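Response to reviewer comment R2.3. The reviewers asked that we include at least one raw input/output pair. We reproduce the pair for DUF1491 family protein here without editing.
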Amino acid sequence: MTEARLRAGLWASAVIRHANQSGHPAMVLRRGDADAGGILAVLLGRDGRLSVLAQTRAPDGSPAWIRGTGPDPVDQAAADAYVARQVGRDPDLWVLEFDAPDLTPPFEATLL
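Raw output as returned:
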């Protein structure tokens, strides 16, 4: 049995709206495929350092996220380079940016 998937454009719109309403300014940096595009979440920390989260699946098949830029925060150039590489591989990707002072995603996310 497969899990029902929420359309990427709808998920992005809802999570951006929720983040903005809860005091974590957010924006769409790049629109991907509205139906089935993957999503990268750029988290902007208090000190200007960033972390980029990429969608994945947990071992049990449930949705999860990984820190694509590694466990430690990176500078803007490193985050931009990671995003550019991923978009080069998958032009359907959405890129969302969130103000996340402690680099914790302002949406429900299982981090692996």
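The mean pLDDT is 93. Residues 8-21 form the longest helix (14 residues). Further pairs are available on request from the corresponding author.
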